[in-house]
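Task: complex structure prediction.
Instruction: return structure tokens for all chains below.
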Amino acid sequence: MNRMSENKYKGFEADRSKYPEMKDGKPVIDLESHKYTKIWQGPQHPGVTGNMALELIIDGDEVVDTKTRVGYLHRAFEKLMERRRYIQCFPIVCRICVPEPDTNEYCVSAAMEDLSGIVVPEKAQWLRTLNLEMSRVGSFLMWLGGQAGSIGMGAIGQWTVGMRDFWLDLFEEMTGGRVYHMYMIPGGVRKDLPDGFKDRARDLIIRTRKLLVNIENTFFNNIIVKSRLKGLGIITPEMVDEYGIVGPNARASGRECDIRINNPYVKYGELDIKMITSNGCDAYARAELRYQELLQSLDLVSQILDKIPEKGEIQAKLPNVLHWKIPAGQTYVKAESTRGEHGFYMVSDGSEFPRRVFARGASYTHAISLLEKLAVNISISDTAALMVSLHTCPPEIER
Amino acid sequence: MKKKDINEIEKQMKLANEGLPEKERALFSDARPSSVAPLNKYLEGFLNWARSRSMWMLAFGTGCGATELRPLMTSRFDMSRFGIAPRPTPRQAAIFVVGGYASIKTIKRIVRSYEEMQGPKYVIALGSCTINGGMYYDSYYTINRLDYYIPVDIYIAGCMPRPEALIAGFNRLKEKIRAGECEGMNKYTDNFDWYKKNQKQIIKDWNMPDYNW
Amino acid sequence: MNIWIKILYAIISISVATIYGLILGGFVRKIYARAHGRFGPPIWQPFLDIIQTHGRRVAISHGVMYYLGPVFRLGGGLGTYLFIPVIYGSVVFANFSMAGDLLLVMYFIFFGQLGMALGAGQGGHPYSPLGIARGLAQMSAFEVPFSLAVIAVAIQYQSLNITTIVAAQQGSILNWTLFTNPFAVIAAMISLLGMNMHSPFSIVLAPQEIPIGPPIEMNGSFLGILQTNRGLFAAAKLVLFMNLFFGGATNLLIMVIKTFFIYLVSVIVGASFPRFRPEQSFRFFLKWPTIIGIIGIIFVAYF
Amino acid sequence: MEQILNRIKDKIEIKISTKKRDDLYFFTVEKEQIEFILSYLKEQENFTHLAFMQAVDYLEDGKFQLTYMLYNYKIHINLGVNVLIDRKKAEMFSMHKLWPHIWQYQREIHELFGINFPGSPRVNESFVLEGWEEIPPMRRDFDTLEYSEKTFYQRPGRSTNDPKEYMKEKMYKNYADTPTIRREK
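Output:
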């Protein structure tokens, strides 16, 4: 069962000895020999995360070769932004990643502010921090359900997605939108907190914590969960740089890479936040690490709620946004999403339209080169669990 | 940038799995689909009642609309109360929920999945982007009107539509099914050439069978 | 007795069992839904599903075996059910019970799966053979503890006739096999978990891995037959277990109560565990349940 | 960071270098030096993490600008290395020996911008586009609106306004040319 638990790093390299032929370090697979079957997992497949596909070649139950196929969600955001004014770019960016849209909003607003030299007022920064952290909670809750669902435990998904809905209600109170918030406009935020928001948020934190205790008992202490996730998809510390791994996937391999701590943005520098790392390297360690981060996020939300100033400006003075020209330059703004480093690279040429915007999603490398590397020599029943444990989000790959 | 003339496509089109290599053609049916008339009034009424109470939805999250399907499936909104259940394979599903924008690459899969579904089948299109392109109206890779490629029974507007709106949409679909108004499949088979023409206009490398029945 | 009356009784018995099995299925969905924190579908939802699947206007077919697959499956379900006496002492529900029917029933449990394998294989979808391979392997695995338990029961009562076995358990609750030979019952109950294919042994239908496995190409009436069989087969299995290990039933009410609680065991396990990997599942059945089954036989034979 | 920049300046000639923020620097190098400078940064200066690699189309100058964004885990600094290459002969060295995952970016740029990367693994596979017959879509001379209008069926009734004109007409009509909102020159 725990095929790789002993000799963790040595046994990682895929055992290719069984295959008939190796050419240039790649197996040569003859589909005509009837030994192998080619299977497309996705895009219409309940096990894949969103609209993407895995082109698997299987030998019995075992996956021999994997290729990730993306592009089903390509909407050409970057092209669309080139022909939209800066303020018109803002409402479309949150569509880039659906479960956690706020990181996109923050990054693109911050990039515009960075290029044009606008300073965001204190209170707006606090509200941004609150919004970002709440979106992390929502995304983690959804992920937890997905991980449990991928190995056939539907109950956890039902509980957490149901709980996430109450967080979406909080978002709706705060921003007016359930899924897409469009809250952190350039120069500040759109609205102040409504009355009584803090009490309701604290109440919800308590309820979420109660649920998480249940989940810890039923999911993390479950022997079958352990037997399935331990030893699955091992990311060795050397692979972190090789494959550009970021976020919880890298932290579960012992790399200290949390942008909130290393390069504090908005108000994360003033919060009590600790780097959570683990040395487990496998899917179970990643799941546990994300669970710890979820608890930490809940803690951070309550810290932020305590620290938000009552009064203050929430909007910096902007020029008329409809003919807002941003001076020429280039910048890269990044933030820590639940999947890792999420960044926007923006190039301005001094006109009213951006020259180039590029969204760097963490799943870009996780879902393609890393997944193709890890999903070899595993059982076909583990592909879904592996994909979820890397927290892939297809829309941010192809944008 | 040269636009393919529609008539030219029509002339070339013989609709006998021509996009496939010779070897694979034998594997797929080359029988043209034909429409199936409803049974007599009372029997069809009874079946329609059963269909409206047991709606099997294809679990294919084609776009961001799939995000709001998850709350709908789970404990907060619980669509299984209305007899809506996700089915993982198109052969068994009756409802296709197209979740938002469809890129060219996805519309190919949508068409194929839609044709693999066994009739009578219904299509719900979520979001503004399926109605007129929404905020991707000028994107080179997303379609603007879904009803030119597959027949649509219900549109649910919004970006994104809330779960309540989805429930309302499903209820409206129920009413339409019971009234016998949802004959999307027959519409598709009757105007098969027109739909295929539209599909082939955007799907440039047509390498799938023409008949997926 | 006139054979026609016998057949009439059998038809009544089959209808009752099918309806009961389907309602039980709806009830189980409801229980799952409650564990998930939602309302769940109405308990008559399986009937609506069956009507809806039969009501499809188009049904694609892949050949002769594809037609025969669901028929074999239904035949397996019917065969299993028809040779089990449902209610002890009742004429209507006695079915075609005879000497040695226990062996026939065990054969029929396997038969449906094999037929299904042939039918699904012709569907041509690559996930079907994967599902079939898993299903048959798991079936062979859980048959081992189940057969051991049945052998233990047969040794204990010196009979292969289910009616005799039920008769021997009448009188007091302490005469049930559950109390006279607990090891065999434990082994059999564990293999029931595999038979019912709830988590953690739901590896055949596993929607996240091989989207519902063997019946992936089944549609319309083919699927309708499979679903009908699911109700009937569930009832047959539960009745068999009730007869062998829980003292049988003297009227319908007792049958309903007992089988419901037997089923509840798999449901509770299913709602609280994720799914095994296939090889984990096979290994599981061949380890502890098999050992317990052997202990059960030794227990019967020497004590 | 200043020391690192000085050390690099000793080695090669840097055309432009800018400090954008405390943790973000950019500099531009020649195309021939890129292989050396990237391996130097990775091996010697601990810029081990490649955040992304992207291209910017400067149609007017006839150039593509490629950006390699590196990150140093020790001093927590991002460094963007820009290279300008000729638009007519769009070709670049493949860096897959330094970072195995860079082939994805090279494949994407190859597909969306039409820049060649000789030797890069799987560079000719399709990434997002399937059956694309036009020029690479991310180039500036590709008009996405025109293509969309030609290819897809429009639903009638959709109208688009130029926001500047529209707002002038609707909102600032009453006080003609003296809006209260500050304008940039």
